[in-house]
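pipeline: protein-struct stage 2 | run 1193 | Aspartyl/glutamyl-tRNA(Asn/Gln) amidotransferase subunit B
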Amino acid sequence: MSKQYETVIGLEVHVELATKTKIFCACSTEFGGAPNTHTCPVCTGMPGSLPVLNKQVVEYALAVGLAANCRINQSCKFDRKNYFYPDNPQNYQISQLYLPICHDGWVEIDTPAGKKRIGIHEIHMEEDAGKLIHDEWEDCSLVDFNRSGVPLIEIVSEPDMRSGDEVIAYLEKLRLIIQYLGASDCKLQEGSMRADVNLSVREAGSAQLGTRTEMKNLNSFKAIARAIEGERKRQIELIEEGKPVVQETRRWDDNKESSYAMRSKEDARDYRYFPDPDLPPVVISDEWINTIKARQPELRTEKMVRYQEEYHLSEYDADIITASKHMADIFEAVTGICKKPKEAANWLMVEAMRLIKEHEMEPENMTFSPENLAKLINLVDNGTINRTVGKEVFERIFAENIDPEQYVEEKGLKVVNDEGELRRVIEGIVTANPQSVVDYRNGKEKAFGFLVGQTMRSMKGKADPGAVNRILKDLLG
């Protein structure tokens, strides 16, 4: 009988904070500037330059820590982590080892077996390094210090996860908490959320942890899931062949769906941490914590409950809409204008989600105004246009944020309510399709649908479907 194995996973999640300026200087944190244009003597490590802590970084770290049920170190400090690498201009990184700002927290995830708490060992503040660009054509490496000094928090979990699904659920939970707080946009593709996976394998039932490896270069949830599965299989194969698992850092290549060793895992001693002499301790008063607590917005879990109670949405609808903070903001704004929550939810869940999928984009990238969707809902609801036309108009709102009232007027899309004109058109269609009339009278319902379709096509979708059905039935006897 083959042995059963258990996978043990912990994560280190780096989140780039949404401050306008860097952690220790006034340089811009904006993504995508020309190389080395968002720099100064502090973030390029010039001798004699002094760091000054950005207060907003501390406030974001506190907000995330409180939302993740952490305890706060009310006197915390910064340490220097010494290592030598071309994208690290000072030859050390300012981080927090001995007294991180937050510790001993948890978040709750949903699993097939029910709710599960994932422990958070600590959250600490640190600065990001620069970025190396490897130029294969010139056979050299170039360094861009724009990202150097961008503020990060690192969220270190306990090794409480047992599968790729649990890891993704944990990351989704963290991402939504942080997005709802406004602390980061958490865009994995832009590097503002990055996860390193620590994974080991042990025989099921064993209390002893196996040798762990750390995997880097994971920039999408799909890549993380694939990397976990790949590394789990690799370690089990080594164990079954009687070979040792080496503690090392590995790099995941998502195109090849395999990982390769980067370096053997350094011990913390190799970094020669010591307190940063240029930065005083950060003292966090009870008043400051209470101010941050009072400012905490409604998070997703609370929002879901409120949508069901206040707007009478189903749990499923509330779940879909709150899965994106931007979608939830649009929903609330639309509902506030047109006072039709169920309609607002339907347009977003059906039409908006369809277009998001078609364009392979994120809900966060929707740019239309809530005012225009509210106007469209009213146009359909009061019968000015029918729902088929409404869907076409919504596509234009989604793509170009057009004013639907103006668009409907200009394109002549209003429902034709002139019964005389409608009757004349339907009479012409009945005359032109005698076989369908015979089929309908012989009990073939499809023939009726065909005649309705021909009428709508002739009216360019502007006829009132109710009136079309009524007149057609009347003419067919």
